[in-house]
């Protein structure tokens, strides 16, 4: 007989992989310029904004050096977020759901917005790690 069981174990999380369906890129600026169509923001793939964030440092590893951005993106439930270990295995995820709290270190995004400032090295200002939204509190 086979059965699926839930096993709890402690894991070291390394990265947060984001795949966000941004509704209005023009609400953000890149190097001080309004990014009307999302053509200026690094980490955009097709219609998705896909930063890969080092959990401990808050640095976006796939960021284009020298670019600064003020991100204020309405995503609502059009985003997926994957917390991965050092080998790239997804340990926790949120799929096509609200924006997790850690994606809005600048101000409260109310589960609908990604709000952050990113410097020329890909460092997210005031980065704070929280698992709110990834782990049920029940």
Task: Give a short overview.
The protein has 138 residues and is mainly beta. It has strands at 15-21, 29-30, 33-34, 44-45, 48-49, 52-54, 69-74, 79-84, 90-97, 113-118.
Notes on the structure:
- It comes from Flavobacterium keumense.
- This is Phage protein.
- The structure is a single chain.
- This protein has 138 residues and is mainly β.
- It has one domain (15-118).
- It has strands at residues 15-21, 29-30, 33-34, 44-45, 48-49, 52-54, 69-74, 79-84, 90-97, 113-118.
- The strands form two sheets. Strands 1, 4, 5, 6, 8 and 9 form a six-stranded antiparallel β-sheet that branches. Strands 3-2-7-10 form a four-stranded antiparallel β-sheet, with no helix packed on it.
- A hairpin with a 5-residue loop joins strand 8 (79-84) and strand 9.
């Amino acid at each position: 007989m086979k059965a699926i069981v839930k096993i709890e174990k402690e894991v070291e999380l390394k990265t947060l992989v984001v795949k966000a369906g941004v509704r209005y890129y023009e609400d953000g600026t890149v190097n001080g310029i309004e990014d009307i169509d999302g053509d200026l923001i690094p980490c955009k793939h097709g219609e998705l904004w896909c930063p890969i964030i080092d959990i401990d440092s808050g640095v976006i590893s796939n960021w284009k050096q020298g670019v600064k951005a003020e991100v204020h993106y309405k995503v609502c439930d059009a985003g997926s977020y994957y917390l991965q270990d050092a080998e790239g295995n997804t340990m926790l995820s949120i799929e096509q759901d609200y924006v997790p709290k850690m994606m809005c270190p600048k101000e409260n995004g109310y589960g609908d917005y990604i709000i952050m400032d990113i410097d020329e090295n890909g460092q997210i200002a005031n980065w704070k790690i929280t698992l709110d939204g990834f782990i049920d509190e029940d």
